[in-house]
Structures are given as C-alpha cells and as structure tokens.
Amino acid sequence: MGEQTIIRFERVTKQYDNDPPVLANVSFEIERGKFYTLLGPSGCGKTTILRMIAGFAEPTEGSIYLNDKLINRVPANERQVNTVFQDYALFPHLNVFENVAFGLRIKKMNKKDIQEKVTQALSFVNLEGYGEREISEMSGGQRQRVAIARAIVNEPEVLLLDEPLSALDLKLRTEMQYILREMQQRLGITFIFVTHDQEEALAMSDEIFVMNKGKIEQSGTPNDIYDEPINRFVADFIGESNIVPGRMIADYQVEFNGRQFECVDGGLRPNEPIEIVIRPEDLEITSVAEGKLRVKVDTQLFRGVHYEISCYDDSGQEWLVHSTKKAELGSEIGLHFDPEAIHVMRFGETEEEFDRRLEAYEEVEQHVR
C-alpha cells in the first residue's frame, strides 16, 4: 500500500443468502485528498462499497483497509469517515447550528470549540449567518449544505456522499457540483461520491470507477474513461457513442462499413474482430463527395448548444451526430472524422487485459522510435 493510499479493497465480495453477489471479488485503492466517483446503474454495487467503507455493512469475503489498518469489523463510530445521505438525514426539531453541532456535543466538546468549529463549517458551505434558521425554512440545496457541514465538522479523513444531488433540480444540481468540487479542493479531504449520472461524474471527479453487476469495469480519469472506453458497456454508459463492428487490418488501420480507415490504435492481432467507437461530436457534416461516410438524415433535435442528428447509412447502421450545423431531414450528407476520433475496443476485454495490451504496445512503439 503506497504512502498516498488511504483505502484499499482486497478481493472483496458481498453476498446476501443465496442471491447473486452484490460485489464480486472487487479490488481497488483510493488515494488521499482526491475526488473519486463510483458510477454505474442502480444495483451495480456502488452504494454497497460506500456502506462497507462507512462500517454499515461487512464483506462476506476479502479485506478492507483504512490507513493500512484492517477495518472489516471496526464499528462505524470508530472510523474517521462521515457520510452524507441522499435524504440528508437532518433533525427537523433542531436548527441549523444544532444539526451541525450534534456530533460534537456527542463527543462532549466544550462550548467554545463547538461554536468555533460549527461557524467554520457553515462558512465552508456558504451558510454564514444561517445558524438560527429552522430546517423547515431551508431550501433543498441549503439542506444539503447543512448535511455536508455536519459531516465535515467532525474532520473526517474520508467523506462519503451517497447520491446527495439526486433530489435537486437541474440548475441547483449544477450549482452544487461546483460547490462540492471547490469544497473538496479547499478541505483536502478524500471524497467518495456515488452517482448514476455520467455528466456529474465527468464534471467533478479526479478519478472514476465505472461499475456494472458488482464489478469495476474500468477506472481512470474522466478523460481516460471518456476517450478510451474499455468495452461497450463503458462506451454506452459514459456519454453517447456510435459503436459499430469492424476489423483490425493492422496497426493504425481498421475496417468498418466496407471500407478501410486510418486510426491511431494498435497492439491487436491482424484481422482481429473489433468494435469501433466514434463519439457524436467527432463527426463533422460535410458534402457527400467529401465525407468518409454517406448517410441519410432521419431525425433532428435542437439541444441548445448543438443539433442532435440521427442518420442511417446504406447498411441500416444508425449514426448519431452532434453538430452546430442544421441538416435537412431526408437529405443525404457526408460525415468526416479524423483518425484520432476512431477508438478501437476488443470484444469483451477486461481492464487488466486492456492495460497489458496498452503497455506491451507502448513498449513496441518506444523500441521502434
């Protein structure tokens, strides 16, 4: 375990009775002072991971470490971890100050220190002067910030956030994303955030764990996850994608739609079946003569900053395009894309296999150079 590692899961499985495992042999490390997001659909195991870190659930198999100490059976109140829940779990009979001070009073801290720490915590969440307000008088966004203040006032090493923005409207949700990210950077606390919203994860995180069916499909920075999805699930879940079957002719050369195209990927076997990913924003509308693909416009929606255009080629393959240009319904257009826009995925490849292939390919590249 590295010096910067604060949490480590080693082959952790969680299973209830004879049901399929909620988590299946999961291993990962969390570094100190970063913003992590567990991203995935409902039932994928992300909240289970949060509950096991917090001490609300124990693994069926495997080990969990906090600061290099095994914590499988350490009670929740003895861990330097606090949780912000989806419903905030505030006390309606206490005002804002007393909600934030609750944990400090349980610890029997003196009155002066409580006043100082609560005031500081409310300042961190931009709620100075709100101490005497009743919870019923607070908006949804303000209640969420009270819940965060109550969590950080205890100075945890890790702050766990279980879909805390899901009940907010879009504008307030976006505002809270900025506040949470800025707060994490100011405090330097490790944040572990659970969401099923991929835009939220991309906007806020230092690192994302994409989860599916009790396993981590891929982990990496938002750019890594978006630009280099490891398989169809990740490509589909993170943003919108055009995914088509193809063949790796050779390094830097792929075939799909009956034509060969240059790309920037390699390291696979010649003529190996692959899947091609091209993001909608990487497709440029041009004339039929100048396009690499010839398609017919089927539908078009205005999304504010771009048009979302659905097209079909002669084989019946749908192509989704995000463009600032408007297209005429029923017209034939060309689609242009650069070699860098083509991402190659091997069928059913795991993250470990992807990492090994990429490492081997980079070694070959260095030798050639």
TrEMBL record:
The record, for PROSITE patterns, names: ABC_TRANSPORTER_1, ABC_TRANSPORTER_2
Any one Pfam family here would be TOBE_2
GO molecular function list: ABC-type putrescine transporter activity; ATP binding; ATP hydrolysis activity
Domain of life, per UniProt, equals: Bacteria
Q: Which GO terms describe its cellular component?
A: ATP-binding cassette (ABC) transporter complex
| Broad enzyme group | translocase
Q: Which reaction does it catalyse?
A: ATP + H2O + polyamine-[polyamine-binding protein]Side 1 = ADP + phosphate + polyamineSide 2 + [polyamine-binding protein]Side 1
Alphabetical UniProt keywords:
ATP-binding, Cell membrane, Membrane, Nucleotide-binding, Translocase, Transport
Tell me the ranges covered by the ABC transporter domain, including all copies: 7-238
* Entry EC number(s): 7.6.2.11
NCBIfam families given in the database record: potA
Role? Part of the ABC transporter complex PotABCD involved in spermidine/putrescine import. Responsible for energy coupling to the transport system.
Q: Which family does it belong to?
A: Belongs to the ABC transporter superfamily. Spermidine/putrescine importer (TC 3.A.1.11.1) family.
- Subunit: The complex is composed of two ATP-binding proteins (PotA), two transmembrane proteins (PotB and PotC) and a solute-binding protein (PotD).
What name has this protein been given in UniProt? Spermidine/putrescine import ATP-binding protein PotA
Biological source species? Paenibacillus kribbensis
Q: Which gene encodes it?
A: potA
